Amino acid sequence: QVQLVESGGGLVQAGGSLRLSCAASGRTFSSYVMGWFRQAPGQEREFVSTIAWNVGRIYYADSVKGRFTISRDNAKNTVYLQMNSLKPDDTAVYYCAAASGSALLSRLSRWETYDYWGQGTQVTVSS
């Protein structure tokens, strides 16, 4: 069982930056694939980024590539999402998620692949 708690959301002007954190419980944190998703009002949950530390792979959605950076600190059981050059279209609730380390790489952008979810943190970007 893994419990995830996000923090770091807030209100920022366009062009600004935020860093989201996701603290995970459990001694096997390093074995999990960790991802970030977001959901805007009236829209489906959207893949943002994922880090499969065990195979050295990082993926980003095209919409955030070059602006967002995912990282993890296994010693602190924490995954981060550094968000730069934020746009109003980035406004959403951001969710941290964990998937088994055996999950198929081809499925890591699908929310159904992830077994555990945080409660979400609101990010609002004003124009």
Low-confidence stretches: none
Fraction in beta strands: over 45%
**Shape type:** globular
Order of helices and strands: EEEEEEEEEEE
Number of strands: 11
Report the total helices.
0
Which value, in Å, is the CA radius of gyration?
14 Å
Distance between the terminal alpha carbons, to the nearest Å?
40 Å
| Content-based structural category | mainly beta
Helical fraction = under 10%
Question: The biggest beta sheet, please?
Answer: 7 strands, mixed
Mean pLDDT across the residues is 94
Can you walk through the features of this model?
It is a single chain. With 127 residues, the protein is mainly beta. The protein is built from no helices and eleven strands. The strands form two sheets. Strands 2, 4, 5, 6, 9, 10 and 11 form a seven-stranded mixed β-sheet that branches.
